[in-house]
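Subject: Interface between my chains keeps coming out wrong

I've been trying for a while to get a sensible model of this assembly. When I model each chain on its own everything looks fine, but I need the whole thing in one frame so I can look at the contacts. Pasting all components below, labels as-is. Any help appreciated, I'm running out of ideas.
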Amino acid sequence: MKNNIRVERAIKNITQADLAEAVSVSRQTINTIESNKYVPSTVLALKIAKVFGKPLEEVFMLEEGD
Amino acid sequence: MKNRFLFPYWCRYLGWALVIGHVPLSMLGRSYGMINIMDAQPTNGGPFSGEHLFFICTSLVMTTGLFLVAFAKEKMEDEQIWQVRLDSLRWAIYINYIVLIASLVFIEDVAHILELNLWVPLIFFIIRFRWIIFRLNSSLSKEDK
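Reply #2:
Try treating it as a single job with all components included. I did that and got this:
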């Protein structure tokens, strides 16, 4: 699964730490999601999309092989 | 993320204190000749003799300490930590059974196998869990540079 978190963060001008605080996880978690090392749960993915005010599909997308 | 069945964060320090405290306690026991430190077995005397009780106490202190260290909450508990914990537990069980089966085949001393079985899963779990968290933290500090 790919994601646009880094881009969305840049648009909204928030840091990893800000996003982590908004969705109550650690910065490490946001960092590993951004670098595609960790696939978040549906709840966390929905929470992140909510922070950016976008539908889930615009922040997270399937990639080939998923 | 609701995490039940985990000890509070401060229990980790209590756990390390117990693990470290167990060392001089065992040394003391050895110097008084109560136990043979190399195998930490009760020496002579039947069940609940001084030697046996001392053996139980030191083993209990060590195991409780390791248990608290292994299952204390992290400062920031989230789903990734939860997953790392589960993954480390799975590996600890794998390693434990590999060691157990290998020792059942190659070692005749059954008492030692029990002793081994008492430490291996907890120690391996702690090492693996801390190592992954260390790697997560170091990837974060690399990002900051």
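Reply #3:
Confirming on my end. Chain B touches chain A through twelve residues (CB under 8 Å).
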